[in-house]
Amino acid sequence: MLMKEYRICMPLTVEEYRIGQLYMISKHSHEQSDRGEGVEVVQNEPYEDPDHGNGQLTEKRVYLNSKLPSWARAVVPKIFYVTEKAWNYYPYTITGFLLTLRAGTGKNTSRVEGKGSRPIRGCCLENKDLQEVERSWCSFLPKFSIHIETKYEDNKGSNDSIFDKEAKDLEREVCFIDIASDEIPERYYKESEDPKYFKSQKTGRGQLKEGWRETHQPIMCSYKLVTVKFEVWGLQTRVEQFVHKVVRDILLIGHRQAFAWVDEWYDMTMDDVREYEKNMHEKTNIKVCNQHSSTVDEIESHATART
Which residues form the Phosphatidylinositol transfer protein N-terminal domain (predicted)? Predict the structure, then answer.
């Protein structure tokens, strides 16, 4: 198990980012989905938790086989996808990822069970929680999971005790991510989304210089406690480190885009962004699902032929 705590500061308030993150996730998913790969939204609906109150429950299927390195593609054949299930009680969220067998490809079909089922908080942290997750979330690789807990605060990443309740005595590396100065993979770079050059017309914020986190107002921080577990002998270290690298890149790109697109979402209300989210989900599902319908048919056809 490899745990890291990421801290990503933004030139926004926590209340502003509530709209911005929903807009960014929907638009980013649509942009990155093409030719049968990307994000399919299965469920997105209001959900009430007895501890956290009203929130939003989202379930997605992420198809990304061609984006994996060759050694990972050998471990994860095309008939599998990543299931993401998230509970958003902003400014607190819980997200879990598991590898899942594509529906219709055999008797041992795996899925995330239980519509509206409650998350297991700290699910990668204690043995009893892991057992509960493995009972309720059937996975092709029961020893593989990613668990993310997120908290948002209006500060510059200075709260060292924010996860004391969840992981006070657990060893972890704290990693600051700077949306202005940290490099992103070249294939994702766009000058229009570079906070060093972008300046918002509606807020006047932008063109962030070195050291901006020390002086900029407003400022907020996304605190993310990320736990990756892949308990397979000979591959554990390599896979867990690779997954954290991917997670870090996604966090950096997503937060850069949320700020670079601020003029697109800044005047939106929560109702506006939920409507935008719904429309984008429908468009994205069309891009992803049509291709996968034929892929599943091909797999079943080959299986029938062999028998």
Answer: 1-96, 137-281
